[in-house]
Design goal:
The structure is a homodimer.
Chain A lengths: L3 H8 L3 H8 L8 H14 L5 H8 L4 E6 L5 H16 L3 E6 L4 H13 L4 E5 L6 H16 L3 E5 L7 E5 L1 H14 L5 E5 L5 H16 L6 E4 L4 H8 L7 E4 L2 H13 L9 E3 L16 E3 L2 H13 L7 E4 L2 E3 L9
Parallel strand pairs in A: 1-2, 1-3, 3-4, 4-5, 5-11, 6-7, 6-8, 8-9
Antiparallel strand pairs in A: 10-12
Chain A binds a DNA duplex through helix 2 and helix 4.
Chain lengths: 330, 330
DNA sequence: CAGACTTTGGAAAACGCTTTCCGGGAGGTT
DNA sequence: AACCTCCCGGAAAGCGTTTTCCAAAGTCTG
């Protein structure tokens, strides 16, 4: 293991000088010594010991990213956006997946705190359980007191910088658009009740229908993934349009309808939410609400990194996109 | 910032005792002192400073994961598998995306070396450029000399533990299966020449056709993603079956054929490779070669973590899965 | 050319842990 | 009762950096 001291000795300079040359210091070092140090470092194959550096500097070059599930393209897209800005800032990314377990989210914040990461990004819907939220807040506050920065992509419930997708508005506009196509009877394939994002989407959609004077939709709960969409869709009947609260559930619904011999959009229209890139080529192509996922991840990290006393919440509105999976009536 | 020393003082014990209680040591500590320390730690909200711990122990609890592109479900699935075993071992994961740039891959290995991560996982096809491979090997050797462990998911070119998808065999078996359906004239939507995985798939497929005495396929190169598949597919004509060297290219091809008014599988059959989970519900459902992606990621990390002098290569064979996108002729 | 700055190099004190030694006391054996 | 072992607590020496303080050597200025 080559240390700075080895480099310094080989270059015939002091530890201080070697440090100043190799790890960006504000101090100047004369050209000749600088060259000697660089040569020695290259010859010996020196690699900075980041742990030692972090300890001495009291600040690390790592950020933490906590997502629900990396194989869900929704999170992959957001993570990708965040990672691009991390890379541009020379920061490494430490990542944890909670698989939607609030306990694990808290545990990760604690671990990332122990790692003294520069910032933590919490990506994904908050939960309705106030106790879980409170415990998470406590942990976050603890981290922030020791200088950590936090941002969230989700609901503004943690008292930290947050990028908030306007789920209610997006769902409401989708509802209006679908009503505009002539639909009157809806079913909603909802996620679990304890996740706020899907709940907000249900409420936004439902409220909009009510405002339009349309009958209340039938709400069918399922897990927030493809299987949940499939399962919920097996119970759908008597409606002309179903709204799945996210695209992967919509995909499950499409599969269920196919298996049941129900044609989309001829027999029933289907719409999703998120506009997942990987699903762009589905047949029929999916009507949905587009969210700028990568941008949201990037923005969240920018917020976290940008020092500021009060916490900011930036709302992101989705854009309704009607494709082939929804058709006009009459 | 609460330190171990603060905890020790508050508990009225020595630093050594506090350390032994809070951070798994082999040494026993009496019940009463242990309780005092735990209480003090909880009261003060102590969080281990992992950087200091790493420095003192000379070993970290993080592993590095280098993938081409996280938004590609292929990599997300492998990463997920690896992350599950990491989590089960109490290891954190530091992740880097190269966007298929060999330079960046090398740079990440260097950075992860500086971080003194326990192990590095390189996920994704190797490149044909021997110079890039040599430079990467040099960097890896350097890392390993200082005790780092390395594993790779891809081709066995780096002299490290490797999980090798048998691309040739998988493609060959796919070719035989498709020939078994009666197809004689094939086109291959190939990836870029400098990536070995797609090249191997092309060769395996081509060789198998030759063995069967069938005409050589037309090979169309494109980028290793959806767009590449789309672009290459626009040039396809006069064949009954096209093999896209991975599923996302196949999706692009499906889209291209749709745009051209060519029906799949009636007018042309399409097969992919990888069996991406998210694409399971495509219509028509995609014939492909299934690779146990999560298992491969998990296995690679196991190999990396399992000490061994000589480097091991474990081959993984894909399973041909014929679905709706390929049809039998005659 | 004296005095006041500015540069630049080095010595050494942190940074917050882990772990090796030491030593004292408790328990067991002749 | 003397001798050995164990067991457990603490003092202190690292781990590899950064950075503060000094000091020496230039560089200006008047």
């Amino acid at each position: 293991m080559v240390t700075l001291e080895d480099v310094a000795r080989q270059a015939g300079v002091s530890l201080a000088t070697a440090s100043r040359v190799l790890n960006g210091s504000t101090r100047q070092v004369g050209a000749s010594l600088r060259a000697k140090v660089e040569l020695a470092a290259a010859e010996l194959g020196y690699r900075t010991n980041v742990a030692a550096q972090t300890l001495a500097r009291g600040a690390s070059n790592v950020i933490g990213l906590v997502v629900h599930d990396l194989t869900d393209p929704y999170f992959a897209a957001i993570a990708d956006g965040a990672m691009r800005v991390a890379e541009s800032q020379g920061l490494m990314v430490m990542i944890g997946t909670t698989h939607r377990d609030p306990q694990r989210e808290i545990a990760y914040v604690s671990t990332l705190n122990a790692q003294r990461v520069r910032a933590v990004l919490l990506v994904g819907s908050r939960v309705t359980d106030p106790e879980a939220t409170r415990r998470l807040r406590t942990e976050l506050d603890h981290y922030r007191e020791s200088g950590g920065r936090v941002a969230c992509v989700g609901q503004n419930l943690l008292g930290v910088d947050t990028v908030v997708p306007d789920n209610r508005l997006g769902a409401a506009e989708l509802a209006r658009a679908l009503a505009g196509l002539g639909h009157r009877n809806f079913a909603i394939l909802a996620g679990p009740d304890w996740l706020i994002a899907p709940r907000d989407r249900v409420e936004g959609f439902t409220d909009a229908l009510e405002e339009l004077g349309l009958p209340a939709p039938r709400v069918l709960n399922g897990s927030f993934d493809r299987e949940g969409g499939y399962a919920a869709a097996t119970q759908v009947s008597g409606v002309t349009c179903v709204f799945a609260v996210n695209d992967v559930m919509a995909v499950g619904a499409l599969a269920a309808f196919r298996d049941r011999g129900i044609r989309v959009p001829e027999d029933v229209s289907v719409a999703g939410f998120d506009d997942i890139f990987t699903l762009r080529d589905l047949v029929p192509s999916l009507s949905t609400v587009r969210l700028p996922l990568a941008g949201m991840g990037a923005r969240a990290l920018e917020l976290a990194l940008d020092p500021s006393e009060e916490s900011r919440a930036e709302s992101v509105t989705g854009e309704v996109i009607l494709r082939e999976s929804t058709r006009g009536l009459g």
